[in-house]
Amino acid sequence: MHSKLWPFILFILGVMLAGCAASAVAQSPTPDAAPTNPPPPPQLQFTPVPDDVVSPVVIQRVPRRGEELPAGGVIELVFDRAMDESATASAFSLQQAAEPPQPVSGRVTWADGGRTLRFT
Question: What dihedral do alpha carbons 66, 67, 72, 76 form, nearest 10°?
């Protein structure tokens, strides 16, 4: 080849390599929405129990720890003994974490002779 073509060939190769290198750099996406603050943690309310009363124990629950509850899913609490259904149902509440907390509407039903509370 002629020595006059080498500068032109090197120039073309340089342009091609620069174009390839520029397209290999990944562009980070630009967020299109402002971040939102997480909801506040739930607030628990405890009712004192007299010393001579043994409190019931929840021995099983659905969903289990770490599981997600699908929309329209059932929350189930199994107690170690039969419960006073009306008192337990009136004491049960569920709130969505928000500011202020929003009540979740639903219905309490019972199974297993008053041992299993289901919230739907």
Answer: -80
Q: Which amino acid is at 56?
A: P
Mean local confidence (pLDDT), 53-69: 92
* Contact between 73 and 104 (Cβ < 8 Å): no
Token representation of residue 116:
């299993």
b/e sequence 64-80, b meaning 16+ C-beta within 10 Å? eeeeeeeeeeebbbbbe
Q: Between residues 75 and 29, which one has the greater pLDDT?
A: 75
**Calpha distance 108→114 (Å, rounded):** 11
Render pLDDT for 98-114 as a digit per residue (tens, 0 to 9): 888 889 999 999 999 99
Burial of 2 (0-12, 13-18, 19+ CB in 10 A): exposed
